[in-house]
Amino acid sequence: MIDVNDLKRQLGLLDISGVCSLEIKGQPVLAEAFGYADMAKQIPNKTATRFATASMAKGFTAVATLQLIEQNKLTLATRVTEVLPSTFPHMGAEVTIEHLLTHTSGFEDYCDEVKDVYYDESWNETLTEPKAYLPLIADMKMEFAPGSKFKYNNGAFVILSLVVEAVSGMGFAQYVTENVLQPAGMISSGYFRMDNLPANTAIGYTEDAGQLKPNLYTIPIIGGGDGGIYLTLADLSKFWRALSSNTLLKHATISEAWTPHVGTDEDNVHYGLGFWLVSGEAGVNRVLLLGGARGVACRSCYYPQHDAVITVLINRDSGSYAPYKLLDKCLMTNV
After folding, report:
1. What is the distance between the alpha carbons of residues 158 and 212, in angstroms, rounded to a whole number?
2. Confidence of residue 121 (pLDDT cuts 50, 70, 90)
3. Is residue 185 exposed (0-12), middle (13-18) or buried (19+ Cβ within 10 Å)?
4. What is the structure's pLDDT at 123?
5. Mean pLDDT, residues 256-273 taken together
6. Selection from 71, 91, 70, 90 nearest residue 80 by Cα
7. Residue 195's CB: how many other CB atoms inside 10 A?
8. Long-range contacts of 266-269 (CB under 8 A, 24+ apart)
9. What percent of the chain has pLDDT over 70?
10. What is the secondary structure of 126-172 as a DSSP string?
11. How many whole angstroms separate alpha carbon 31 and alpha carbon 237?
12. Torsion angle of alpha carbons 203, 208, 212, 218, nearest 10°?
């Protein structure tokens, strides 16, 4: 049996600014908040606070894309240049939707984490919708043959957001809101402007010369296909519940998304269609969404075999791993 009081005590010993939760079979076991959502105003984080989630948003872009595949408007084998003709003159004609979803396209990344090339602060205020990224990515070139290897690629999910717009006829954020967030009951989440955040939303703080400062303009001002949606603990639990109950996608589709498609640099870690997958002796036992940027660190993990969810949302440059591992260890020793 989980000793919740001891678990809270152990979490309290960690340097956390954010929120974390553990849920088993739809029942909350623990939800705790630490630190400040707004340091200047001394507003504390709460378990219902919204947090920026960086690349965690890739899971939502993947779901939107897979929904359009279910509607027969796309297939995994659809070539990107067929949907977006003349948009990427140097993209190989053989690059498909599946290549984008699995980080195997071989197309250069405008925000290449492997090469430590991140967002340019001079651009971030202008990045308010998918087409605003085109000056950054349109003239990218191929780095390797599509499907030949895994290389994490933020730009691939920006391109997927352009595909969603082209195929659905809707703005990307509008599509995700109406077809993913609302059906899942995620009423507190969305794509918000960093310079006009709604109430009960945490400001991200990044370290600069030993001091913490708000992360405004250090990342795109509105989230998009590759990152930046604002989420709450409760809404992330609803997202996993909607996926596992086939509210957002058919059973066959989510099974395909949560099946390993490509290996990564880590043993037993694979990538599916927009989701990280960790495998054990009995197959995939953890489905992960991760995010990290200046002033953002988060991870949310679904355990299919135990119908459990662990989520950690942090409004600092780092700090999500330690509480996640603590909660993971607790879950694994008590189920």
Report:
1. 29
2. low
3. middle
4. 61
5. 95
6. 91
7. 11
8. none
9. 96
10. G--SGGGGHHHHTT--B-S-TTS-----HHHHHHHHHHHHHHHSS-H
11. 12
12. 0
| Residues β-bridged to residue 291 | 298
SS3 239: helix
Q: Which residue has the tokens 């990044």?
A: 206
Report d(CA 321, CA 60) in Å as an integer.
22
Of 235, 213, 227, 231, which Cα lies nearest the Cα of 317?
213
Place of tokens 């519940």: 241
Reduce the secondary structure of 78-124 to three states and give it as a string.
CEHHHHCCCCCCCCCCCCEHHHHHCCCCCECCCCCCCCCCCCCCCCH
Residues with Cβ within 8 Å of 165's Cβ and at least 6 positions away in sequence, in order, are: 130, 171, 172, 175
Residue 302's H or E segment, with its range, is: strand 296-303
Q: Is 327 helix (H, G, I), strand (E, B) or coil?
A: helix
Contact criterion met (CB below 8 Å) for 315 and 202: yes
Tokens of 93: 């004609």
Token pair 């290549």 is found at: 99
By three-state DSSP, how is residue 10 classified?
helix
pTM for the model: 0.96
Task: Tell me how long the chain is.
Answer: 335
